[in-house]
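[Backbone geometry]
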Amino acid sequence: MNADDFANQARIVSAKDFLGLINRTIALLKKEQHAVGSIRVDGRLVHLPSSGKAIIIGDLHGDLESLTHILKDSGFLKKIRKGANVYLIFLGDYGDRGSASLEVFYVVLKLKVLFPDKVILMRGNHEGPEDMLPVPHDLPIKLKQKYGEEAGAKTYAELRRLFNHLYNAVLIDARAVLIHGGVPSKALSVEDLAYAHTKHPKESDLEEMLWSDPQDELKGVQPSPRGAGKIFGANITRRLLKTLGVNILIRGHEPCQRGFKINHNGMILTIFSTNKPPYSNDHAAYLQLNLSKKINNVKQLKRYIKQF
């Protein structure tokens, strides 16, 4: 199957088959409590070794066209079938706002089921806990329009169950940390990222990881205009990177006019992988990362950012 085949399947999948796919994915994620293939897992944190390559995809928000383009342009399916050591990492925010939320979820979950140790699914704020639903959150409406009231509601309930198994973060050994939103400002150890979901809502780590945004002129943290998470400064980023033994943070969450942006003197790279309505950015982008290369600053990665 190629990328177009996956997209075509997604457009016609029945509620029964989609539910089956969701449940198979949940079963896979449950087995990943300690490892994804040969990769170590700690709580909801994936420890990715600094070898091989990674294709990193930011927010899609129901944009099936962009997802299909990335799969084709990156050559992921061809590479994986040739036995290449390549990972496909999604930074979260698969649905809502776009026209094809269900279809994007279908393709992403299908890829996970087919290549379980090569596809890593992270949690975005649109897959967050039920006490922190984003606005607008139109995924349940789309599902009911597609499958009817009862089947749509059941499908949404199962997707919500899936969200609780998605990863909080990915740590690339001595290279980078991947988080959907931002830095948990009170985190003191790698375990705070790995187990943020177990401490929510008593502690704010998960909320900040899903919702926070960087600001260049700021020191410390301030309340976010989003109504959740924080706005955080470079000193907060620097402290976490030092704690984790890495040099950069790769994140999604924010629309970027060029499909990407750099913050905090090259410590943060934001990737946004859709430019379809309701967004009006000129470009979308994804990142092709050589995991074996040392990264001192995000600016080193600009040549590997693929705009479209």
Remarks:
- The radius of gyration is 18 Å.
